Fold this sequence. Notes:
Elements: H1 7-21, H2 29-36, H3 44-54, E1 57-60, E2 63-65, E3 75-77
Antiparallel strand pairs: 1-2, 1-3
Amino acid sequence: xxxxxxxxxxxxxxxxxxxxxxPDKSFCPSEGARRLADDWRPLMADVRRVxxxxxxxxxxxxxxxxxxxxxxxxxxxxxxxxxxx
Length: 85
């Protein structure tokens, strides 16, 4: 059974990871999910949705993508300073 996490829990973990990495580094969304639960795979859809809702930048092969709509692996990071979103 997978524990339930609220969006605020997920957002806190994702933002903590993003700030720890800094503005020039990215991380895999699964890193956030793994911090929340040992059985992390079921959390991935929520992690991607919350990443979009928090304003983190998602990229795939260096191109910005919507983390919810993207297929395959993505990376998350803080938006560059001065970015409008």
